# Entry
Amino acid sequence: MLKIDGTYGEGGGQIIRTAIALAAITGEEVDIENIRANRPNPGLSAQHLHAVKAVKKLSGGRTEGLELRSTRLKFAPGALNGFESEIDIGTAGSITLLLQCLIPVALFADSETKVRIRGGTDVKWSPPMDFHTEVFLKAVREMGCDVHLDLKRRGYYPKGDGLVEAKITPSHQLNGIVLVESERIGEGVVKGISHSCGLPAHVAERQAKAAESVLNAAGYDSELKTEIDENGKRTTGCGITLWKGYKSGSALGERGKRAERVGEEAAGNIIKELESASTVDVYLADQLIPYIALANGKSEMRVREMTKHIETNMYVTKKFLDVEFEIEKKSGFVIVYKV
# Structure
């Protein structure tokens, strides 16, 4: 049984998601200790529980310690069988983080997997849903993955109640991805969605206008859409996600934070990525590590900096797979590749 130290690197839930996914794919039993030990609320949270339960359902596996706030989890996987089901994370547990664990496993199942997932679509400390649909999916499809995500409704903290439908068709064989050419500064159009629910329409509009102003001042053309639902009975919140190629920037609204600041923050985040010599943003880079390791052939990408999340995913991935990542630091960016 492989042992994983839950305090390694960024020491968060990513260790659980990657370890459980790769355990299911490789058939290796895993024992994860000290789960989120250095976090304010150590142990498994609701979204971790549901992610592991979904993989357990896919693999018919056995678990020990699969309970809220548990700091140790053992998982013994079985054969991978696709399924059709509904998952309710509850409140605003992150749907995108659950998908990080579920998607790679479903790609190696014996049949298609269809799930309707309820929870948070745009919440703190997790990728926004538009990043997943517009940036992440673009990359994994390039690698031969057949994954479809349909955002039915958004869910914000604290109520959640967002809804996403996912359909994952088994691929079994992934292709390497080589991303070496960074786009020229100022070239192309930055796209995005500014969204709100339960708030006046001008909130999303002001977010978009502020983002456009910052982008235009930096020399980028933009095509931003607004998505507005003024009925706040179900959930209330706002945010904006911007993307161009394999790079993104996003920001969420919160009480006391002006809409203009939200838009400016998102624009600043993507400009920081666009003006570097990287080919992918730091968030996509860490999510691609397990896919690159599982893929046939060479993969290469350039990132603005080596983050704890990237290092952590490399650490966990190398526990399960006979793979080596090589890192080469150059001025302004880091090259990460598998040979």
Remarks:
- The chain has a mean pLDDT of 95.
